[in-house]
Amino acid sequence: MVATSVASRVESLASSGIQLIPREYVRPKDELTTIGNIFEDEKKDEGPQVPTIDFKDFGSQDKAIREKCHQEIKKAAIEWGVMHLVNHGISDQLMDRVRVAGQAFFDEPIGEKEKYANDQATGKIQGYGSKLANNSCGQLEWEDYFFHLVFPEDKRDMSIWPKTPVDYIPATSEYAKELRGLATKILSVLSLGLGLKEGRLEKEVGGMEELIVQLKINYYPKCPQPELALGVEAHTDVSALTFILHNMVPGLQLFYQGKWVTAKCDPNSIIMYIGDTIEILSNGKYKSILHRGVVNKEKVRISWAVFCEPPKEKIILKPLLETATEAEPPLFPPRTFVQHMEHKLFKKSQENTDTKICQPQEQGTNPPKTKTSHPQEQGTNHPEKRISQLQEQGNNPPKSG
């Protein structure tokens, strides 16, 4: 059984004492068979594991050591599209400050957080919010969030940055600047891995002036029926790169070789995804991996997702000439970033219509339904990820685990 009413914030719903979640949060039956106990899943050591990259050798004076590091990043980007970065140069102290400040904001009473509420109906997506339904069926995710642009500094709207706690602004600003520098390093390695000049990919996504960096703090309250819900549904990120920090509560899962793999919790690592933007520019050589966020009934999970995105309309995203050949023709048609998001939204709407997922369904035994993409977009070696690869409606912020 499930409940029928939906509170305005998931946190309010979770703290109300309900034992049954509203039907709008119940996942389709083909997903329910894949949702397990995240704490047990995180303990498993058998099977594939998300690769870990020791970044300390990135700039080594020893060419052999430096090249080994670069090759490991390239291999992870090709085979997985996600990796744990350790010794990445961002201090543990700064990461802890970011975690403390973000949690302190969500520890505030909901009435205080509402002062920073966004207004999705008018297109104001920055601020405190909860997901709007992305289809006529009203399916929702077990998550609240705080979302805002953090870099470049001259594009920030400081009026919606929390004034409490007092360290939120300085800690978040410093972290954003550090991550922006890390993104440059990652993009340089990925460029070299494609046989391009070191700065090519960064230039293609907007460079220091135009690449947009946005932060989304995902807040996943305890869920009384975690076996029926998801914090974030399966998707790929539209970004160039996404960086994830979390509060050491497991919940991130990656779809790899036909199975969901749970990311381990490493207090010193930052998880990094390849986004659709880089997959397109590389003509599918680097993978934008399908991932999701799982919830639990024991602990609140918080994650800090930082999206590095090209400008919405100034750049045409398409496979670079150097990445396509007669034997490997372009897999993606030219689109602006906003057109790519709209394309994913359209595909999602079509998939929801085709599968008629309009009511919660009983648990089944079938595997998740998947859809291949347009013929011009096939050939990425993992069509399974197309299960739900679009972003939300245009008035929702990007998602990630």
From TrEMBL:
PANTHER family attached to this UniProt entry: OXOGLUTARATE/IRON-DEPENDENT DIOXYGENASE
InterPro entries: DIOX_N, IPNS-like_FE2OG_OXY, IPNS-like_sf, Oxoglu/Fe-dep_dioxygenase_dom, Plant_2OG-oxidoreductases
Family as reported in the entry's similarity comment: Belongs to the iron/ascorbate-dependent oxidoreductase family.
Organism: Panax quinquefolius
A family per Pfam: 2OG-FeII_Oxy
Keyword S-adenosyl-L-methionine attached: no
Protein name as annotated: Anthocyanin synthase
Transmembrane regions: none
Biased amino acid composition, Polar residues: 355-381, 388-401
Keyword match Nucleotidyltransferase: no
Needed co-factor(s): L-ascorbate
Keywords annotated in UniProt: Dioxygenase, Flavonoid biosynthesis, Iron, Metal-binding, Oxidoreductase, Vitamin C
One Gene Ontology MF term: oxidoreductase activity, acting on paired donors, with incorporation or reduction of molecular oxygen
Record region (Disordered): 350-401
SUPFAM superfamilies the UniProt entry points to: Clavaminate synthase-like
Biological process according to GO: flavonoid biosynthetic process; pigment biosynthetic process
Every Fe2OG dioxygenase domain range: 211-310
